[in-house]
């Protein structure tokens, strides 16, 4: 199925991953690509990125394809690198698909994303369309599921909604007295605070915190459509994972249906399994508001990149064609 939506590919040092994503995207109907390449850290990275540019130069000669490339000179890391890439993407596009170079999507992912982008465009409660299903396939493979967490192994969204998401990701919030001993809220609030302070280089935890607190939803496909192969030295998503994150990619049923109305009950059931098995939110997380700051103080002496909002302000998005 051809799609009119563009794709952003965020990459760093996996030239084979970039080539694979472009090839799958072209076969799936993508004709407009945005490539954000984080700055190299080593000479080996520079060589790898040189191969990326050589490949893109060849593809640029294909008349019906468009490529926009943002090569960063400084290594921004996982959080600022991805966030600024998505900001750049949506400074030019109204909606689109986002992929990172350690992912392998099926062609069905692009079909699912395109249909869901059309279907939920005017639904303010839907923030994210995901291609990854962290739980086994639904018993009824006809219907999509809901989650209050952003599943970002292959995802899509809209520029207007991303503006709200991006602002909340970099803006620290407060945990109310009423929720001070809520294990789930403490887990995400603490993770968001650490990322925003630069103690961990991550952007997904602030997004999960914002999405959960604001009662926004992710559309989950009935079967898994994306796999992650990033278990190498450059891995940012899969290092140290105990829960089996990757489920086999399956064929999206021809008769699958997107649910018109958001279901809190459906999301609650799906998310409780994620919280127990994937995120492993435990009773002791209820006390993170007490012991968390002491752990952060120790960590800040070893690792701190500076606040995420400050790093974001120092990065200027490119103008014009690159």
Please describe what this structure looks like:
This protein is α/β, with parallel strands linked by helices and 322 residues long. It has a single domain (7-313), classed as Spore Coat Polysaccharide Biosynthesis Protein SpsA, Chain A. It has 10 helices and 10 strands. It has helices at residues 15-27, 43-59, 77-90, 107-119, 159-170, 183-197, 204-213, 264-278, 288-300, 308-313; strands at residues 7-11, 32-37, 66-71, 95-100, 103-105, 126-130, 145-147, 155-158, 217-220, 226-228. Strands 3-2-1-4-8-6-9-7 form an 8-stranded mixed sheet, sandwiched between helices. A two-stranded antiparallel ribbon has the order 5-10. Helix 3 runs antiparallel to helix 5. The radius of gyration is 19 Å and the shape is globular. The model is unreliable at 235-241 (pLDDT under 50).
Explain the layout of strands and helices:
Blueprint: E1 7-11, H1 15-27, E2 32-37, H2 43-59, E3 66-71, H3 77-90, E4 95-100, E5 103-105, H4 107-119, E6 126-130, E7 145-147, E8 155-158, H5 159-170, H6 183-197, H7 204-213, E9 217-220, E10 226-228, H8 264-278, H9 288-300, H10 308-313
Parallel strand pairs: 1-2, 1-4, 2-3, 6-9
Antiparallel strand pairs: 4-8, 5-10, 6-8, 7-9
